[in-house]
Specification:
Elements: H1 8-47, H2 51-54, H3 56-79, H4 81-100, H5 105-123, H6 126-133, H7 137-168, H8 173-176, H9 178-192, H10 207-225, H11 227-230, H12 232-255, H13 269-299, H14 304-311, H15 313-333, H16 335-353, H17 362-390, H18 397-432, H19 437-466
Helix pairs in contact: 1-5, 1-6, 1-7, 1-9, 3-4, 3-5, 3-10, 3-18, 4-5, 4-9, 6-18, 7-14, 7-15, 7-17, 10-12, 10-18, 13-17, 13-18, 13-19, 15-16, 15-17, 16-17, 16-19, 18-19
Length: 490
């Protein structure tokens, strides 16, 4: 039997090695979500997509991804999170190969939908596995900082890789690059991640409830991502149907003997408020990433590769700040204060972008707000993640992880739909009035950045009002370990 002095080493190595595997799987799905953006014109030219049809290269991924996160998060609790994670990696990698060899529109769209399924299976259980691996608050803060740094940096890195691969090779390689990454991550997951059997399907396999919530979430994402083409009336109709499905699901969960979703989860002020703040924060940031790339290409005339290179300071800054400062800052000042500081920086960065000129210069007009946004996101994301996950019990960790990822997708889809629609409407109106195309396009983007500033400011106000630490009496006991002091008890 090993001595006490010998035992901590393998346990510590195993946990941090497991974190590397989880980050690798997450990085692959996040890279893929952003790498497509820069390659869209090349895909359209090669496969002959129409303007509205091209949107389905993105929508076909987002709808199953956002719709299934909550369901597969719960299924991960029931059948085992390691099994769900590894299965998701296999599905995502196989679907990526299908995308890479696609030679027609139908194959690519179908393969993208399958990627969304695999991405949901992988992403939904990651945070639940992470908080189980690192129950001690200080170590958990460090682990979340690493995980968040990989996710945030991966988003910006995807823009660079998309431009580099598309310009030097072709768009097929933005998908084929996932094959070696996925195989290595899958093998590492099988070997390194600790097995967990789950509590069994009989403990929560509410199939009617699963059908209701999956249908509601898919319809919600579909309504959001297609709002610009469908018009207000059609979008409101779909939104009304999705609300009816959500209502039916809620009634079902309140009455079911073994509910898919325990409604007590939403009694946590930290969990519900953090998810609400995240929707707004991601809405602004995802919209910035998409519209910022368009601003560089369509207004400043950057190539795909130069656009990707222009975004590189963001992942570098995010990685340095998250890995070097986030955990220590949260440990010293608490997640509430760090979250507010991060949201304030994001608001300031968006405000600077809202004045982006037609003849803008990178060093003066793009880099300063880019660094502000990177610093703000590096502070805010680990803080809001810790607050959200601190509100879930161990048996609900997979479900809480799925819920957290679901709000990311909904926030990103909502921000992208609203901001791009506003920008396009302003641009079309100005061009119709005789304005120059580039000047009108820049004005449309400025409007979008101005609205994003308002969204970020709203997230700041919401966090300040709802996530303020409660009185000591309402704080979870210290032995709860993984729960933050800022969290209200269930």
């Amino acid at each position: 039997m090993p001595s006490r002095s010998e035992s901590p080493t393998p346990r510590t190595y195993s946990r941090w090695a497991s974190l590397v595997v989880l980050c690798a799987g997450t990085l692959m799905t996040i890279l893929d979500g952003n790498i497509v953006t820069v390659a869209m014109p090349a895909i359209q030219s090669d496969l002959g997509f129409s303007g509205p049809g091209l949107a389905w290269v993105v929508n076909a991924y987002l709808i199953p991804f956002g719709g299934l996160l909550l369901l597969v998060g719960r299924l991960g609790d029931l059948v085992g999170r390691k099994r769900m994670f590894a299965a998701g990696l296999a599905v995502f990698t196989a679907a990526s190969v299908l995308c890479g060899v696609a030679t027609d529109q139908g194959t690519l769209v179908a393969a993208r939908a399958l990627q969304g399924v695999g991405g949901a299976m992988t992403s939904a259980v990651v945070l639940g596995m992470l908080v189980a691996l690192f129950p001690e608050p200080r170590e958990q803060a460090r682990a979340i900082a690493v995980f968040s740094a990989v996710g945030a940096a991966g988003g910006a890195l995807g823009t660079f890789l998309g431009g580099a691969l598309t310009q030097t090779l072709n768009w097929h390689w933005i998908f084929l690059i996932n094959l070696p990454i996925g195989v290595v991550a899958w093998l590492a997951a099988l070997r390194i991640l600790a097995p967990d059997k789950g509590v069994g399907l009989g403990r929560g396999a509410d199939y009617p409830g699963a059908a209701l919530v999956t249908g509601a979430l898919m319809l919600t994402v579909y309504a959001i991502v297609g709002a610009g083409d469908r018009g207000l009336g059609g979008t409101l109709t779909l939104a009304a149907v999705s609300l009816v499905l959500f209502g039916a699901f809620t009634v079902r969960q309140a009455r079911a003997a073994r509910p898919l979703l325990r409604l007590r989860l939403f009694r946590s002020r930290a969990l519900t408020s953090a998810n609400g703040v995240q929707i707004l924060m991601i809405a602004g940031m995802y919209g910035f990433q998409y519209i910022g790339a368009l601003y560089l290409q369509r207004v400043l005339g950057y190539s795909e590769l130069l656009t990707g290179t222009a975004f590189l300071p963001a992942p570098i800054a995010i990685g340095v700040l998250m890995l070097g400062l986030s955990a220590r800052t949260i440990a010293r000042f608490g997640p509430y204060r760090v979250l507010l500081a991060g949201l304030a920086l994001i608001t300031a960065g968006m405000a600077l972008l809202s004045r982006a000129p037609v003849d803008g210069r990178y060093v003066a007009d793009v880099l300063p707000p880019l660094l502000l946004l990177a610093a703000g996101f590096a502070a805010a994301m680990p803080a809001v993640t810790g607050l959200a996950m601190s509100g879930a019990r161990e048996e609900d960790a997979g479900l809480a992880s799925g819920l957290f990822n679901t709000t990311q997708v909904v926030g990103g889809s909502l921000g992208l739909a609203v901001l791009t629609t506003l920008a396009a409407s302003r641009t079309e109106r100005l061009i119709g009035g005789g304005a120059h195309t580039v000047a009108a396009t820049a004005d449309g983007y400025r409007l979008a950045f101005g609205v994003a500033t308002g969204i970020a400011a709203t997230a700041l106000l919401l966090a300040a009002a709802l996530l303020r630490p409660g009185r000591p009496a309402s704080t979870p006991a210290p032995q709860a370990g993984r729960q933050s002091r800022a969290n209200a008890s269930l």
